[in-house]
Write a structure and sequence with these properties.
4 domains, 20 strands, alpha+beta
């Protein structure tokens, strides 16, 4: 049988965005949406189903996976930070098991395990008892964001409780109406203004030298909130009240990044795991796993309240960015690349670069990279405003408690025979005279210490006014947090 003559359009086998580096995932999404819009218009004009939809293969129902499940201890009041979420595992065991092939996990717990993080009263206060920025509180219905004006308070003119120019306020009546019809309420970055969640976030940040973001979701009906999607960070879903049904669809690209070389937009057709979280449970979802969640039909009308907590991902590409800062000390890396030169010049140039990179990589780069990542972390701290804006002038100065900012990730670089040393903490590198090493070490090695304790421990070596002056300079330089303890 003679081979069919191929048509011209069949010569085009695919395309991708050309780039000299990673492309933001949103670029792929915009390109994909453009293609969908074009195909949608063509299909409507021709009166046929969307061409891309017609090309999708028949679903085989998907293969199922069994998630590892763990029972958290009944008494976990002594657990803090990340251990509070992943008990009975400890941090090292959790990280070791998730390094090469991250898999979702479920951590079951008692219904009161997270009951004090956010209550319904807390949520009502956050949403309706204060002015909020529109970006922080919004509604999602069937995967689409509801326009803000549909649930914000109108400006009715004289005599109304109008929030004021350019300030939004939630209209509780409109909000409730939309929630009754199936919308999901989302409060973004709740860790920034709700103390119990802020405390949990700070514990995790200081332990892992990372940055945490926490969002809240409240829903009452089985309509989905966000459409099925994947995140470019790990997610811990913390069920506080009620229940939620989760669907996990697996991965279509392992460890995808927000800025990536390949799109990751083809959603799997069928979930590989469906399960319920009830109050006290935590679901760990690794980066790149497609997922969605909703109240199941049997519990429709009963409120569900959960948090999603995510941490910043430190990937191998960070090493290259870190290396860039190290290699800029070498003049050859600051030169223009000889792209138009002859082959020998280019070979010499790239050979010199490669030799320096290999040297930098082999020279204890692992320890140096980890140290620099930890030292670059900056701690989120409250202000310490009090009667005295200059706390050292307070008559109660000796009772003030001092904490080194970023202290859990701080490191001291003490060089033999040197007259100075370095303190790396909270995104800064500070150099000190070696004579004050013990004072700085006392701050770096303890979670907190009072002014009186420092004077008692080192009063035989440093006059009290020297210690006061030294601490004063640290406070003014934003290296130390000083707070007054009121009995």
């Amino acid at each position: 049988m003679a081979e069919r003559t191929r048509r011209a359009h069949e010569m085009f086998l695919g395309k991708a965005i050309a780039s000299a580096g990673p492309v933001d995932h949103s670029v792929f999404l915009r390109e994909n949406r453009h293609e969908e819009a074009v195909l949608g218009r063509l299909s409507r004009r021709l009166g046929v189903p969307n061409f891309r939809v017609r090309l999708e293969p028949e679903s085989d129902g998907g293969s199922q996976v069994v998630l590892a499940e763990f029972e958290s201890p009944a008494k976990s009041d002594d657990l803090t930070g990340i251990e509070r979420l992943i008990a009975p595992l400890d941090l090292s065991g959790f990280v070791a098991g998730q390094y090469r092939h991250p898999q979702p996990m479920v951590f079951r717990g008692g219904e009161d395990r997270f009951s004090k993080l956010v209550t319904w009263d807390d949520l009502n206060d956050i949403v309706c008892s204060r002015n909020v920025r529109p970006a922080l509180v919004h509604l999602i219905t069937d995967g689409q964001r509801t326009p803000d004006y549909l649930y914000q308070q109108d400006d009715l003119g004289l005599g109304s409780r109008q929030p004021g120019a350019n300030v939004s306020k939630i209209d509780s009546r409109k909000l409730a109406n939309l929630l009754r019809t199936g919308s999901t309420l989302i409060v973004n970055a709740i860790h920034e203004y709700h103390p119990p969640v802020a405390h949990l976030a700070r514990e995790i940040e200081s332990r892992l030298a990372t940055y945490v973001n926490v969002n809240l979701y409240a829903s009452w009906h089985s309509t989905p909130g966000f459409a099925t999607h994947w995140d470019d960070h790990d997610v811990f879903a913390i069920q506080m009240i009620g229940q939620k049904e989760w669907h996990l669809f697996g991965q279509t690209r392992y460890s995808p990044a927000a800025r990536d070389n390949q799109p990751n937009v083809e959603q799997p057709a069928q979930p590989v795991w469906v399960g319920n979280l009830t109050a006290g449970d935590v679901l760990y979802i690794p980066r790149g796993w497609w997922h969605d969640a909703r109240v199941d039909q049997a519990n429709a009308g009963l409120g569900s309240l959960h948090l999603t907590l995510n941490t910043r991902a430190v990937t191998g590409t960070w090493i290259l960015r870190w290396l860039e800062s190290q290699l800029l000390d070498h003049e050859v890396f600051r030169r223009n690349a000889p792209l138009a030169a002859d082959e020998k010049v280019r070979a010499d140039y790239f050979g010199e670069l490669a030799a320096l990179i290999r040297g930098a990589l082999l020279d204890g780069f692992g320890e140096r990279f980890e140290r620099d990542v930890r030292n670059a972390w900056t701690e989120s701290t409250r202000t310490a405003l009090s009667t005295y804006i200059e706390p050292w002038k307070s008559p109660n100065w000796d009772s003030f408690v001092l904490s080194l900012k970023g202290g859990r990730q701080a490191s001291l670089d003490v060089r033999a025979e040197s007259e100075s040393f370095l303190l790396r903490a909270n995104g800064m590198v500070r150099e000190f005279d070696v004579h004050c090493l013990d004072l700085v070490r006392a701050l770096a090695e303890r979670e907190s210490v009072s002014v009186a304790q420092l004077k008692s421990a080192y009063g035989d070596r440093f006059p009290a006014d020297f210690i006061d002056g030294f601490i004063k300079q640290l406070v003014k330089d934003d290296a130390v947090f000083a707070r007054e303890i009121i009995a």
